[in-house]
Amino acid sequence: TKGVGRVAEVGARFTLDAMPGKQMAIDADLNAGLIDDAMAKKRRAEVAEEADFYGSMDGASKFVRGDAIAGIMITFINVLAGIAIGVMQYDLSAGDAAQVFTLLTVGDGLISQIPALVISTAAGIIITRNTSEDSLGSQITNQFKIHPKA
């Protein structure tokens, strides 16, 4: 999640840095008569929408990172609480309680981290996707065709 967060942050920063230049280009095209008022409004809306998107993705990546950290902390708490419950409530030895509840907690931790992994991967793909007109599937296929061997 750290890599996706950094990519989202850089994408948002680059988009915001490029925004004044894009706005000036729209104004120049409007003043030169290359586009009309309606087209200028449409292009300005597209620029604002792009900036909002990258800003939102930056915030979403920070949320996913926080969620993953919270999940790891909960996993450690579950291990300790499970051992305590195993010893006190089920009269297990500390070793047996640790073996049983660590195994259960690791399974729970893995299951709880899968959504964060999927969301992080999807966000990374969306943010780093180029702006060509090709579909996402054809872009992925083309990437694999470039270097077919690992």
UniProtKB/TrEMBL annotation:
InterPro entries xrefs: FHIPEP_CS, T3SS_FHIPEP
Biological processes per GO annotation: bacterial-type flagellum assembly; protein secretion
Transmembrane segments: 68-90, 110-128
The UniProt record lists the keyword Transmembrane helix: yes
Keywords assigned by UniProt, alphabetized: Membrane, Transmembrane, Transmembrane helix
GO cellular component: a single term: plasma membrane
Protein name: FlhA
The organism of origin for this protein: Bacteriovorax sp. AQ
Phylogenetic placement of the source organism: Bacteria, Pseudomonadati, Bdellovibrionota, Bacteriovoracia, Bacteriovoracales
